[in-house]
């Protein structure tokens, strides 16, 4: 029979002693940005549906999306789109069994983070 009394030690690493690695944080952010892009997509669909429905509905939707909060959401959506795209390219590289060693994986993680910020700024400067 298993020893039920294992003492005072934790069963798994606790958050207070676990240091997240760049690869785990970027993986979690990829999932978060994917879900956030769904929300942004729904906002854009709402905007198009409102435009097709009536001038009053479009005025409401356009007012929300072009408000300060709406502009922030759309700008963050651009970052999320670039981040999710670059993280997807990184996964395609990993699917070919390339760059799986820790130094290369770390470089790819930083490339995704820095690349997404740079491409977002370029996009916002070009579009604005």
Please tell me about this protein's structure.
With 128 residues, the protein is mostly helical. The chain has one domain: Fumarate reductase/succinate dehydrogenase, transmembrane subunit (3 helical TM bundles of succinate and fumarate reductases, Up-down Bundle), CATH 1.20.1300.10. It has helices at residues 22-53, 55-65, 68-95, 102-127. The chain is extended and about 70 Å long.
Short description:
Helix content is 76%, strand content 0%.
Helix content: over 70%
Assign the CATH architecture.
Answer: Up-down Bundle
- CATH H level, superfamily name: Fumarate reductase/succinate dehydrogenase, transmembrane subunit
End-to-end separation in angstroms reads: 68 Å
SSE sequence, one letter per element: HHHH
Strand segment tally: 0
Q: Which parts are unreliable, with pLDDT below 50 for 5 consecutive residues or more?
A: none
Give a quick account of the main beta sheet: strands, pairing sense, barrel closure: none
What's the mean pLDDT score? 91
CATH class: Mainly Alpha
Spatial shape: extended
- Our count of helices gives 4
Total domain count: 1
Fraction in beta strands: under 5%
CATH topology: 3 helical TM bundles of succinate and fumarate reductases
User: Helix/strand/pairing class, anyone?
Assistant: mainly alpha
The gyration radius over C-alpha positions equals 21 Å
